[in-house]
Amino acid sequence: MPRSRPRRAAEGAAAAALLLLGTACGSRLPESDFGSDTRTPVPARTDAAPIRVGIVTSVTSPVGGDTFTGPRDGAKAYFDRLNARGGVDGHPVEVRECDDGGSGVGNNTCVHRLIDEDKVVALVATTALDYAGASRVSHARVPDIGGQPIGAAYDTWPHLYGIYGSLAPRGGTPGWGGKLYGGTEVYRYFKREKGARTAAVVSYNQAASAAYARLVEQGLRAEGYTVVTEQVDFALPNFRAAAADLKQQGADLVFDAIDTHGNAQLCEAMDEVGAKVIAKVTNVQNWTSTVVDDYKDAPRCRNALWATGSSRDFEDTGNAAVREFRDATKGLKTHSQWQLEGWAAAMWFTDAAKSCADTKTGITRACVDGFMNRSENYTAGGLLVPVSFERLAEPPKTRRTCLSVARWQDGKGWVAQGDMNSTCFDVPQLPYSP
C-alpha cells in the first residue's frame, strides 16, 4: 500500500475554520530547471500561447483574510519562477485567480468563470472553505491538482486530485458509503518516540469542534491512551480551568479542536497554571513562521509546540527542494507549510504539462488529467510524502503511513524531527463521517 498521509491534518484545518463561523509515476523537473544552474534564464516566448490555470481561494471568507492564502501564494511563486526560466516548452503559465468569498455561491461562480469563460487547462492549489463547485469541476473533466482537502470533495469526485492523494472510489459519494478513513500514526508516533500515555483533547461546545474532538479521541483510545476531555464554552471560554484540569490529570500531550486564537489563549493558560507537557500538537494549517507572534505570551507552551503533516518542513533548508522554495518566496512576509504545499501543487501541474507538451494533442485538460490519474508515489522532488491515487472497492483496514514531524524552538524556528520518509507506522484505519 502506498505510504501516503491520510486526511486527519486537513480535517483539523477544516474544524478550526468552521469554528470561527460560529457557529504512472510523476516525473520531477530536471535539476537544470530549479537547481543551481549558472546559465542565463531563458524567458518564455512572447509569441507562444499561454497555458492558463486557475486558482480558487477563499480569501475574503468569514474566517479571515490570510487563513487560506498560503497554497495560492506558494503556487504563484512557483509559476513566476517557472516563467522566468522559459515556462513549459516556451509557453508561459498564466494564472487566473478567483476569490470565492468562502461561500458555496461564490465558489460556484469562480468555477464557472475559470472553466467556462477563462477556459483554464486545470485548477491548481484550490483552497476553498465551501467547495460547492466540485461536482461541476468533475463533470467538466477539468483536473484539479494539489488542492487542500478541507472538505470531502477530493475523496468524492473523479478528476479532483488532493495534495495528499486518495484511495477512495471517488464515484460521487464521499469515501466508502459516506465514510472516510484515517490512521492513528500521529498518536503512535508520540507513544513510541516520546513515551506519551495520557492525552488531553480540548474543544469548544460547538458542533464542528466537538465532532473533530471525538475523532481525535477515537484515534487516541485505539492507540491505548488515557484520554482527558476538556470542553470550553465557545462564547466565554474558560481556558484556565481546562489548563488546570489537564495539569491535574497529568496529560503528556494536548490536542485541540479549536482555532488559532483559542490555541494561543489555551497556551497562555497552560503557562499560567504551570502545566508542562511533552507536546502541544497542532496541524499543518498552523505550521507557520508566525508562532512567535501568535504565542508571544506563552513562551513555555510555545516551545512545546509540535506539528505533524505530510510534507517536508518548510524550514528544512538543508534540503535542496526546500531551499528552492524559500529562495523563490523570500519576498513574502511570512512562510508556512501550506505555501510549500501550494508550490508542490504547481510543480505537479508543471510535470503533467511537460509530459503533454510533446504529444500530438499538446497540453490539454484530458492529457493533464491522464497524467494525474496515473500518479503513483509522486513526491514533488522530495517535498511530499509519496502520494498516489487508487480506487479501492473496500477501505483498507490497516495502512503503512509516513509523516513529517517538526517542533518549535525559539531561536531556531521549526526543527524537523527525523526524515518523513522513514518515520512510518503500520496503523489501523478508522472510519468517520465527513
TrEMBL record:
InterPro entries: Leu-bd (IPR028081), Peripla_BP_I (IPR028082). The keyword Signal applies. Keywords: Signal. Gene3D superfamilies: 3.40.50.2300. Residues 50-411 form the Leucine-binding protein domain. The keyword Disulfide bond does not apply. Belongs to the leucine-binding protein family. This is ABC-type branched-subunit amino acid transport system substrate-binding protein.
